[in-house]
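Design job #97: recover the sequence.
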């Protein structure tokens, strides 16, 4: 499933019209009829429906919906919130079709009037503003949105809750708080941003006949589903041996944080790595090795000093490295050596992201790919901004960072945004609030390390790793656990169930 900005959606519509040969009117008819079908399936006909329409094509969709629902037997009234001359083009055409069969069109020009008129209704269908919204919401629409939000009736938005921007990075002024949104064709970026997803309520997409080719040409952002995992997950070779399944190195677990590296190592092994070596400090060897007996060990005097020739030689056999889980935040020569002296795919997580920050000022001398896995706080630190700004702009901040430093970015959260150095993006929205607990990020790093070693292409590798991690948590809260008691170690154990669903 593709995810779009407003500009991309307009380009996609244009493609459908100009190259696909589908008239704009047909697209609007399809949009309205498809939304009406969804409403027919979800809500019975004894409801009294108000459809509020604005000046643009979103309002045009509203007139089409009105016609279909009235034909089906609903009691429908359309409230036009703008002057007649503002309704133009296809929207005006569908307004006329509505008037040909119904006299239930009321002009409402102020919010008091709207409030009085809507008290008799059970449900309001919001076709006031679509993706064409720009700037602060102007009066009288502003007060009207406020009135609708305060009505104790079901609110259904068409395409996008009116007032909400489609693109990330824009501060929300005022928007309809919908119970349900029927999104036309493709979810917009704000569906997946923490501060804005709430406005959509439940959401579903309706297809209106836009050719897939339009998406290939105009967007490079998609939501990762089981279908994508199945299509890209590498098959286990019958004749595989441990060497062919990847030799990974995890570096971390200083004195006060031995658990972090155990979680990463065990998660890497559970997700299919052939061999995992844990590089950690001598003092922690007993606890770490007894918790992960399948791994091999490489001892380091501390986790910040330069790597010796002996270390570099030992790491030469390694296919990929993950560093940062419980290494502490002191300045690190070790991280610079990993970047400059070992040309292996390198995943940088947790504390090592703090150590990476000063190194970003000089060009990163690393041919093999670098993957960083920050949560919002770490991303805010890396980009000298605030957590609220990262939450508002997860797509754009990730893209700017990935393109500027030519790294892969896995920005972790309820919706994890994965970005390639060329700006291509994937959203992974599996998982639940049970994952909001210390250690789950370490588990993700271990899983991602294995995926990096086993896939040919890195973006699907990272997306598949995030899918496994989130799906394991989802499976666990549906069976033996809840969002309260779920532990990072459980997420490792849940992986086997997820693998079963993939075969
Ligand atoms: N071919 C197409 O373009 C299709 C468009 N569709 C619908 O059309 C919508 C987009 O249509 P439009 O581009 O006409 O955009 P809108 O329907 O969002 O309307 C934009 C108009 O709203 C008003 N407006 C914008 N910002 C405002 C603000 N801050 N305060 C008050 N009023 C404001 C302005 O009059 C502006 O011209 C989509 O969301 C979707 O619902 C669908 O019908 C499918 C096909
Ligand atoms: N509410 C949530 N819903 C879904 N996933 C979540 C939620 N909270 C956290 N996660 C996931 O859990 C992991 C937490 O990582 P992180 O914050 O680095 O944890 P830690 O550093 O303690 O191991 C990330 O993969 C994130 O996407
Ligand atoms: K709307």
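Job complete. Output follows.
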């Amino acid at each position: 499933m593709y995810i779009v900005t407003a500009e991309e959606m307009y380009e996609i519509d244009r493609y459908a019209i100009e190259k696909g040969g589908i008239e704009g009117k047909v697209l609007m008819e399809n949009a309205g009829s498809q939304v009406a079908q969804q409403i027919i399936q979800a809500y019975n006909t004894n409801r009294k429906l108000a459809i509020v329409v604005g000046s643009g094509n979103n309002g045009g969709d509203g007139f089409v919906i009105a016609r279909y629902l009235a034909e089906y037997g609903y009691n429908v009234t359309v409230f036009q919130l703008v002057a007649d001359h503002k309704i133009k083009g296809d929207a005006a055409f569908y307004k006329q079709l509505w008037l040909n069969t119904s006299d239930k069109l009321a002009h409402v020009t102020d919010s008091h009037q709207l409030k009085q008129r809507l008290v008799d209704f059970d449900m309001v269908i919001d076709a006031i503003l679509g993706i064409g919204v720009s700037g602060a919401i102007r009066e009288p629409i502003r007060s009207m949105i406020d009135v609708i939000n305060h009505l104790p009736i079901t609110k259904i938005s068409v395409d996008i809750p009116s007032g909400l921007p489609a693109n990330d990075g824009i501060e929300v002024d005022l928007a309809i708080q919908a119970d349900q949104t029927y999104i036309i064709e493709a979810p917009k970026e704000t569906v997946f941003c923490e501060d804005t997803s709430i406005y959509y309520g439940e959401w579903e997409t309706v297809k209106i006949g836009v050719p897939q080719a339009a998406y290939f040409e105009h967007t490079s952002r998609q939501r990762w589903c089981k279908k994508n995992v199945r299509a890209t997950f590498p098959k286990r070779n019958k004749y595989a041996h441990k060497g062919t399944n990847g030799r990974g190195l995890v570096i971390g677990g200083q004195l006060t944080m031995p658990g972090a590296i155990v979680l990463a190592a065990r998660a890497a092994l559970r997700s299919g790595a052939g061999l995992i070596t844990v590089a950690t400090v001598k003092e922690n060897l007993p606890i770490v090795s007894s918790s992960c007996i399948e791994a091999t060990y490489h001892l380091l005097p501390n986790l910040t000093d330069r790597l010796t020739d002996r270390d570099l030689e030992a790491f030469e056999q390694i296919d990929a490295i993950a560093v940062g889980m419980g290494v502490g935040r002191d300045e690190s020569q070790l991280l610079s050596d990993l970047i400059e002296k070992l040309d292996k795919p390198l995943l940088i997580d947790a504390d090592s992201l703090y150590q990476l920050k000063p190194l970003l000022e000089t060009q990163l001398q690393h041919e093999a790919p670098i993957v960083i896995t920050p949560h919002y706080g770490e991303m805010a630190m890396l980009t000298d901004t605030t957590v609220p700004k990262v939450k508002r702009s997860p797509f754009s901040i990730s893209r700017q960072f990935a393109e500027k430093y030519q790294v892969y970015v896995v920005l972790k959260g309820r919706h994890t945004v994965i970005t390639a150095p060329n700006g291509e993006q994937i959203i992974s929205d599996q998982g639940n609030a049970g994952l909001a607990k210390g250690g789950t990020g370490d588990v993700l790093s271990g899983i991602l390390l294995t995926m990096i070693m086993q896939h040919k292409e890195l973006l699907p590798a990272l997306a598949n790793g995030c899918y496994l991690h989130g799906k394991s948590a989802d499976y666990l809260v549906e069976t033996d656990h809840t969002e309260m008691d779920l532990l990072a170690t459980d997420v490792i154990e849940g992986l086997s169930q997820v693998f079963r669903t993939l075969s």
